[in-house]
Amino acid sequence: xxxxxxxxxxxxxxxxxxxxxxxxxxxxxxxxxxxxxxxxxxxxxxxxxxxxxxxxxxxxxxxxxxxxxxxxxxxxxxxxxxxxxxxxxxxxxxxxxxxxxxxxxxxxxxxxxxxxxxxxxxxxxxxxxxxxxxxxxxxxxxxxxxxxxxxxxxxxxxxxxxxxxxxxxxxxxxxxxxxxxxxxxxxxxxxxxxxxxxxxxxxxxxxxxxxxxxxxxxxxxxxxxxxxxxxxxxxxxxxxxxxxxxxxxxxxxxxxxxxxxxxxxxxxxxxxxxxxxxxxxxxxxxxxxxxxxxxxxxxxxxxxxxxx
Length: 308
Prior knowledge:
By secondary structure, the protein is an alpha/beta fold. It has 10 helices and 8 strands. The protein folds into 3 domains: 63 residues, no CATH class; 77 residues, no CATH class; 132 residues, no CATH class.
């Protein structure tokens, strides 16, 4: 892929059906730029580094973006299917394109030139991971006289939809989303083990049924680190607090766009609530009071979830 990116301005992958984790990671590097290395030929300890950075076009009728970090780097366009009678002969399509090509190319050149003119002073309304593209959209809004933030909002909405689709392919993330939707309380405090048991009951998983499901509360906590950014795109903020006991806080924020950046660790002494929780024993994975066990706690706060 590194060689392909160095010999083409646009890497095109057609008829995509699935992406391996390794391929997804490589495409993430290509989208934002990075280097890949390997042993140089005919040497024992020589290393050859290739810079990987290119525009990428992927096409397919099957959902193939299963990794949330890759989805966060994509701009998705859903094309309508051809209706009966709309298909054209390839020769006819090529003739139409050749006729319109000068006008299309000239329009693109003019648009790009106008964007470059205002780009230095363009300010994104809500910059995301691909901040350069957000700034480009902000400049385009000025050039084509669109309301400020309109293109950026459409781009962000598409990213959130793709993040949600990727999250639903992850059993743990899907269970957390379902759990949050079922909450009646605006704030819920649980121990990691209690939350793990409730999520397992909600998802109807056991340790022996699927390798995709965490095998313990500790494994669940580790996987939550990788789900921080995509869950934040859906309005669920995860924070870790380290004190006398380890705490995990999940907050439901009203506007994912305005949500603060996730904080990895905090050092603080927290007072652990005292009480008994019979929700799992009674078969209700969500209900019950805001109590925890003796290991730690997970706080789930929400101001946007409707009561069931």
